[in-house]
Specification:
The chain is an alpha+beta fold. It folds into 2 domains: 11-208, Glucose Permease (Domain IIA) (Distorted Sandwich), CATH 2.70.70; 215-332, no CATH class. 16% of the residues lie in helices and 30% in strands. Strands 3, 4, 5, 6, 7, 8, 9, 10 and 11 form a 9-stranded antiparallel β-sheet that branches.
Length: 335
Amino acid sequence: MVVGLPTPNQFLFVAGREAEFYQPVEASRPHTAKYGCTRIGTSGAEGSGFHEGMDIRCVQRDKRGEPTDSVAAIADGAVAFVNPLGGASNYGIYVVVRHEFHDAVLYSLYAHLASVAHGIRPDARVARGQPLGVMGRTSNEFKDGMIPKDRAHLHLEICVFATPHFAEWSFRKNKRAVEHGNFNGRNLMGLDPAAFITAARSDSWFTVRKFLDAQTTAFAVLFDSREPIPFLAQNQWLLRAASEPRPNQPLAAPVVAVEISFDHTGLPLRAVPRRSNELNEEQQRALLQRRSILSSVNETELARNNCRELVKQEGRRWTLTPRGVELIEILTFTP
C-alpha cells in the first residue's frame, strides 16, 4: 500500500525532529498536535479532550507570514466532499477523499485550507501527491474565522465512514439539518494518522485490516444480526468469519448476532458473527428484545484512555454512556 504525507513537511520520518512536524496548541504542550486523548476537555483536565487527527506544521510562508504549503492527497482516490466556505465549519475549508484500498475503504480529511485546487470537486479522481489545495488558517472556532498565524497547520484525519444515513439521523435527533450532511465530522471515525502512515511506510505487507487488528480493543458490543446494520453494509470489509462448530456438535448453531470491537475512541476495529451457543442468557434476552448490549470491556485500556467516555462503570457493572448509546444509534439507524 502506497500512502504518503500530505505536505512538504516530512519531519515525521526524520529521527529526532518530530517536534518540527507537529503544530501544537501551545509550544509547552507538544502532545496537543497528536491524535488521541491529548486535549483539555469539558472537565478542564489535561488529556480529557479527544483530538481526532494530527496537526502538521507549515514549512513555507509568504512575505505576510501566511502559510503556502501545498496540500496533497495521501493516496489515490476520489474526492467525496468539498466545503469551500471557511466560516461554515470548525474545519474551515476542507476536502474529503475516498480511498479504495485492496482490503478496505477509508476516507482522508484535509482541514483549515486557504483554498481548494482547480478541478477538486466531488467524484474527481486524484492521485497520491496530487494537490488538493493550499494550507491555510480557516476555522469558525475563532472570532475572525482565522487560526492565529503562528499556529497555521493542516489538520489531517484518516477515517472510517460511519453511515450513509447520518444526515437523516441527525435531523430526527436535533430537529434541524446538520452542516455538511454525511460529511459532517461526526460521521467520520478517525484512526491515528501518524501511526497509520508510518506503518504503511515501514511494512511491505501492510493492510488496513492488519493495522486495525493491532489496535487495542477497549469494549465490544453485540448487535442483533436479524436487524439491518447500515454501518456494516457500508463497511463489509470489517467482517470476519464466524467461528467453526464446536467438537462433537452435529450441526453448527445459528448466527444470531454480530460483535463489533471498538478501540477507546469508538473506532470499530472488526466485526465477528456470533452463534447462539457463544452467548450467555443475558445477551440472548437482549437480542430477543432487539437491543444491542455491551459484551466485553478492557478495564486496563479504559483506565489509560477513556476521554471519549463511551462506557462507564456503575458499581461492578459496565454500561454504555449516553454518548456510547448515541454511537450505536448512528451505526444502526435505518430511515
